[in-house]
Amino acid sequence: MFSIIGAGIGGLTTALMFEKLNIPYQLYEKAKQPNAIGAGIWLAPNALKVLEFCGVLDAVFEAGNEVDRITLTNEKLEALADSSQIPAKKKYGFTTVAIHRARLQHVLVKALPKEKMIWNKGFSHYTKNESGLTIHFEDKSTHHTDFLIAADGINSKVRQQLFPESQIRYSGQTCWRGVSPNPLPEAFKHRGCELWGKGIRFGFSQLNDAETSWFAVKKAEGFGVDEPLTLKKELLELYKEFHDIPKELISETPIEAILRNDITDLKPLQNWFQDKVLLMGDAAHATTPNMGQGGAQAIEDAYYLGHYIKSNPEHAFSVFQNKRYKRVNNIVKQSWFTGKIAHFSTLASLRNFVFKQLPKALVDKNMHSVYQLKDL
Ligand SMILES: Cc1cc2nc3c(=O)[nH]c(=O)nc-3n(C[C@H](O)[C@H](O)[C@H](O)COP(=O)(O)OP(=O)(O)OC[C@H]3O[C@@H](n4cnc5c(N)ncnc54)[C@H](O)[C@@H]3O)c2cc1C
Q1: Which of 296, 281, 291, 294 is CA-nearest to residue 51?
Q2: By alpha-carbon position, which residue is closest to atom 16 of ligand 1?
Q3: Which InterPro entries does this UniProt record tie to the protein (predicted)?
Q4: Cα–Cα distance between 376 and 374 in angstroms, integer?
Q5: What is the pLDDT of residue 297?
Q6: Second label for 108, Cα 20 to 30 Å away, from 5, 35, 91, 341?
């Protein structure tokens, strides 16, 4: 029996894979019910391929919005790099999907048997015994298991017990996210745009016919707190040199729908498992969101893990780590680096000039190396 901790993107997809492959499991989540907070998230073709295998692709498309063009621009919405996703659609069968995080969670939960998910069960710690592991929950209950899969996110309690030396790194950037109750102008309906200014950036994409997700990022000290009464005014001031769309999105969004998070990742761990305990998703390799791949990599983890447990149960965890480690850590590194470039201030014009000259073939090659799911 496998016990999965965490009903986020990674834990739920793992449960779906286990259902599909007939692997016995039970999932435990500390939240009382499905309630993923947050705004929009992009699901790239590599993630969609796995969700197709799990049988939920149609529901994801129904709940989200296809993004068939991704454009990096300056603050006036003038393109620096424009990437049509149509070639990706031809190659993989789909483009990227923008979807509200809560709706994605809903789709995944709905596809799973209710009795396999136990809500309101916060993991506390585990102990080892001769026949396996005992999981201790915050409510003092216990459960015996053969294997423990930690999908409990960047602040993973399982990881803190397994590798207490692990370190979360602050990127020096803070991010506001929001969902505006309005669609974008028709020309932007299926576009994802990221606008790079001097030391700040802004991104948006439509989530469905009625909502648009956005994010705003600036360099800041960590753990900043906003004053709700003045936050919108401050954001509007920050983005005053930008095109009107960002300012409209900020203005339209109810203040309670604006969230703030410092952008962090996990310093790469040397190992993702020990004996019968495995870390996956953000618990193992949280990345900054600059490439929109953190959730996609958690989804990929689920895919490979399920297959390796099925094909090589004795060594599944080590095969999983060997297969995934290099790809995932390259994404973590590249994403960290992209975040640094995005926040150039004095060198912003030079950066924009260089990005405009980047050969399309190079941009596409990089995109496909991320979108292409590697063989098992
Ligand atoms: C601003 C921002 C934008 C992003 N945009 C994208 C994007 O566009 N595309 C993309 O692919 N990724 C994106 N990501 C990354 C993505 O959100 C994460 O990589 C993804 O959510 C990781 O999934 P996970 O299941 O590993 O962890 P999580 O989604 O964090 O889920 C962890 C789950 O474990 C539960 N849990 C925690 N502790 C316990 C406990 N003690 N006991 C039981 N349960 C517990 C939590 O309640 C939660 O449900 C973004 C991230 C951020 C911060």
Answers
A1: 296
A2: 295
A3: FAD-bd (IPR002938), FAD/NAD-bd_sf (IPR036188)
A4: 6
A5: 98
A6: 91
Tell me the pLDDT tens digit for each residue of 176-191.
999 999 999 999 999 9
| Stated length of the chain | 376
pLDDT of residue 8 exceeding 90:
yes
Beta-carbon contacts of residue 122 (< 8 Å; ≥ 6 apart): 30, 137, 138, 139
CB 57 within 8 A of CB 201: no
Q: Which domains does the chain have, with CATH numbers?
A: 2-168+265-371 (3.50.50.60)
8 Å CB contact between 79 and 73:
yes
What residue's CA is closest to ligand 1, atom 50? 289
- Whether ligand 1 lies within 6 angstroms of the CB of 109 is answered as no
69-80, pLDDT tens digit by residue? Answer: 999 999 999 999
pLDDT tens string 277-335 = 999 999 999 999 999 999 999 999 999 999 999 999 999 999 999 999 999 999 999 99
Q: Is 157 in the pocket of ligand 1 (CB under 6 A)?
A: yes
Report the distance separating Cα 152 and Cα 11, nearest Å. 8
For residue 343, pLDDT beyond 80: no
Distance CA 135, CA 355 (A): 50
If one residue of 26, 28, 41 were mutated to test the ligand 1 pocket, choosing by the most ligand atoms within 8 A of its CB, it would be 41
For ligand 1, say whether the CB of 50 is within 6 Å of any of its atoms: no
Per-residue pLDDT at 62 exceeds 90: yes
Compute, in angstroms, the gap from residue 283 CA to the centroid of ligand 1.
Answer: 9
Q: What is the whole-number distance in angstroms between the Cα of residue 48 and the centre of ligand 1?
A: 17
Cα 51 to ligand 1 centroid, rounded to whole Å: 17
Tell me phi and psi for residue 150, to 5 degrees. -95, 110
Instruction: Give residue 17 CA to ligand 1 midpoint distance, Å.
Output: 18
Range list of β-strands (E), 29-91: 40-43, 65-67, 69-74, 79-84
Distance, CA of 337 to CA of 288 (rounded, Å): 10
